[in-house]
Structure formats: structure tokens, C-alpha cells
Amino acid sequence: MDIAKNTQVTSKSKINVSSILQYGGLIILALIVMGPFLFGLWTSFLPTNSIAKGSLSGSLTIDNYVAAIKTTPVLGYLFNSFVVSILRTIGEVFFCSLAAYAFVFLKFKGRNVIFYLFLATMMLPFEAEVIPNFMTVKSMNLLNTYSVMVIPFLTSAFGTFMLRQAFLQMPKDLKEESDIEGLSHFQYYWHVALPYSKITLLTLAAYSFLSSWNEYLWPTLTTFSDKYRTVQAGLRQMQSTETFNNWGMIMASAIIVVIPTLVILFIGQHFFKSGLNDGSVK
């Protein structure tokens, strides 16, 4: 009995030490990841004079947020980002789902070869495509418009691959029964395939929206005025302005810009967990 008790105590102590190390490591990693955001959030409430002196203490105020909204075009940047991100998300989900449906449910010669060629484009980094894409949109007179930030991203190999895998998991009986009922391909796609894969669609939509919202290089290269600049390019432009040295206002603008991404991440995480639970039940 004593030996058994000693064994249990030793086992519990090992588990406790292991748990402490795991949670300690997770807390350290969380602080490393959250550190810059928390630092920016704190300084956004400090007076600019305190920040200029290198002090991180002082009376907290929302003046920086009021000044950012009244004196900078940050709201215009937010509107532009919303327009571009929503259009890109709708386009990418729609066209990727159509392509994925074709690769799964339509039978044509060379289907697998075309799909693998499609996937091969994922190996090419975006930076390698910038110059030819820029020359293409320039020849089409799309520079400094919403179109230049939407049209090149209406579909993607990643989204097609992701939805193809979701469609492949659908029971084959559904397609056979729909053929017997006389449903066309578009009716099956719209009424059966999309509802069945709604969690994957929502995950892709969240990913597409966040990718568009956080994109910096392409909007910086293709937009030249505040009328069309998105938040990432706009913040960089504000920071690089020689007369704009109000760091409290810059931090407040950055926090305003981050809020929509946090909301989307929260919603996307909820759907992602729901998808995992549904999959475990099925």
C-alpha cells in the first residue's frame, strides 16, 4: 500500500511540474506576442509630451483618439479597407467555390493535371508576381482605384484547395440522389454543396478578410492618394509625414485600425471551433 501511495504521489508531482512548465511557457509566449500590442495600447492613452520624454507614465486621456479621428484620414482608410476587404472576400469565396466544385464534381479530360498546375502557383511567392501584376494593372489603367486592390485577388489556389477538400468529404449518395431528382450542377452547388461546407466557407472568408485587411505591399504600390489608400498603407504614409510626429495619435490610429481584425478573429475562432465539434460528432 505504501509503495502504491508513493508511486501515486510521485506521478502527481511529475504531472504538476509538467503542467507548471507548460503553462509557464505558454504565458511567456503570450506575453511576447501581446507585448507590442499592450505597449501600443498603453501609449495611445498617454500625452504626446510624456512619450516624447521617454516616459511611460502620466495622466491617461482619450485626446489622442479624438485627435486621430478629427485631424487624420484614418476613418477614410478604414472605409477603404472595409470596401476592398468585403469585395475581395465575397469574390474569393464565390470563385474559389466554383473552381473547387468543378475539380470535384465535373469530369473532364486532364482535370487532375490542371488542378496540380493550379496548386503549383502556391509555390510562387507573391513578391515574385508583383512586377508582372503591376505592369498588367497599369496597362489596364486600374492604378489608384478600388479595382486594382480587388481584381487580382478574386481567386486563389489556397482557397480552391481548401474548398475542394471540403467537397471531397461530402457523401457520394447526395450527388447520386440529386441526379435522380434532376438537379442541375448549379442547383446542387447552391442548395447542397455550399450549405454542407458552410464552416469551411466561413473559415475561408475570415482568412480572406484578414489577409486583405493586413495587406501592405500591394496597396502601397498601387494607390497614390488618401481617397483609395487602405489602413496599412495609410498608417505608413501618416508615420512618414515629416510634420506628423505625434506618436500618441499614431498609436491611437493603430489601435482603431486593429479593432475590426480582433472582432473578425473572435468570430472566426468561434466558427472554427464549431466546425471541429461538428466534425467530431459526424
Automatic annotation (TrEMBL):
One of its GO terms (biological process) is transmembrane transport. The keyword Transport applies. The chain crosses the membrane at residues 20-42, 82-106, 113-134, 146-167, 247-267. Keywords: Cell membrane, Membrane, Plasmid, Transmembrane, Transmembrane helix, Transport. InterPro entries: MetI-like, MetI-like_sf. Gene3D superfamilies: MetI-like (1.10.3720.10). It is found in: Cell membrane. It is a multi-pass membrane protein. It holds the Pfam family BPD_transp_1. One of its GO terms (cellular component) is plasma membrane. Residues 78-268 form the ABC transmembrane type-1 domain. It comes from the Bacteria. The keyword Transmembrane helix applies. PROSITE patterns: ABC_TM1. Its main location: membrane. Belongs to the binding-protein-dependent transport system permease family. PANTHER family: ABC TRANSPORTER PERMEASE PROTEIN MG189-RELATED-RELATED, SN-GLYCEROL-3-PHOSPHATE TRANSPORT SYSTEM PERMEASE PROTEIN UGPE. This is Carbohydrate ABC transporter permease.
